[in-house]
């Protein structure tokens, strides 16, 4: 995604905060989603990033993405309290949470929107897989639909990928590895 020239300095300033933060405290998936959110904020007309401090925007982006991916749940591999998440940026948890909530609204960051879910968590998020089928619009988990219906749901942007094809590709790769031994 191209950054508008007028927003490039602001992008660079905020990215310079996001990248080392994600590398030290989160991971590459978080970094990619945070930078994607930053790009989308830069492309808004007018960009909300034109006012406010870079550190506050970086904190808000991190909060929006991290909270959407259950960073506050201790059962997750990467988990923090709100205080722990905010501390490295030198901001209060309330400042971070308030900016994060604002960003979530602006970018429509929600649990059931695959655009904002870590790829490693997509399979475990049942909300990403629910589709309506039939004349009554019965909600069904797309992972259990026949292949042709999974393909159609993916084409329409209703599911993040085609599970049956992903499973087939994994099986083929495993078979090739076994044949190569």
What's the overall average pLDDT, rounded?
Answer: 91
Class of the largest domain, according to the CATH hierarchy? Mainly Alpha
Backbone CA Rg: 19 Å
**Architecture of the largest domain, CATH level 2?**
Orthogonal Bundle
The general outline is: globular
User: Largest sheet, if any?
Assistant: 2 strands, antiparallel
- Would you identify the regions where 5 or more consecutive residues have pLDDT less than 50? none
Instruction: Summarize the helix and strand pattern as letters.
Output: HHHHHHEEHH
Q: Helix/strand-derived class?
A: mainly alpha
What is the number of helical segments per DSSP (H or I, 4+ residues)? 8
Can you describe this structure?
The chain is mostly helical. It contains eight helices and two strands, in the order H-H-H-H-H-H-E-E-H-H. Helix 1 (8-25) runs antiparallel to helix 2 (28-43), helix 2 crosses helix 3 and helix 3 crosses helix 5 (93-107). The longest helix is centred in the first third of the chain and has 18 residues, at 8-25. 27% of the residues are buried.
List the helices and strands and how they pair.
Elements: H1 8-25, H2 28-43, H3 54-68, H4 82-86, H5 93-107, H6 119-122, E1 130-133, E2 138-141, H7 147-155, H8 163-180
Antiparallel strand pairs: 1-2
């Amino acid at each position: 995604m191209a950054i508008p020239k007028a927003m490039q300095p602001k992008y660079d300033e905020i990215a310079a905060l996001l990248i080392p933060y994600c590398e030290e405290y989160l991971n590459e998936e978080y970094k990619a989603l945070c930078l994607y959110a930053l790009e989308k904020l830069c492309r808004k007309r007018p960009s909300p990033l034109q006012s406010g401090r870079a550190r506050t925007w970086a904190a808000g982006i991190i909060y929006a993405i991290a909270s959407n991916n259950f960073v506050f749940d201790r059962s997750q591999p990467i988990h923090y309290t709100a205080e722990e998440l905010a501390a490295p940026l030198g901001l209060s948890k309330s400042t971070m949470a308030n900016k994060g909530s604002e960003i979530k609204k602006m970018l429509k960051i929600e649990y059931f929107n695959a655009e904002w879910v870590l790829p490693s968590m997509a399979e475990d998020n049942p909300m990403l897989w629910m589709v309506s089928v039939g004349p009554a619009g019965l909600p069904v988990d797309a992972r259990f639909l026949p292949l042709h219906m999974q393909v159609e749901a993916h084409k329409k942007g209703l599911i993040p990928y085609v599970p049956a094809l992903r499973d087939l590709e994994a099986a083929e790769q495993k078979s090739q590895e076994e044949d190569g031994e």
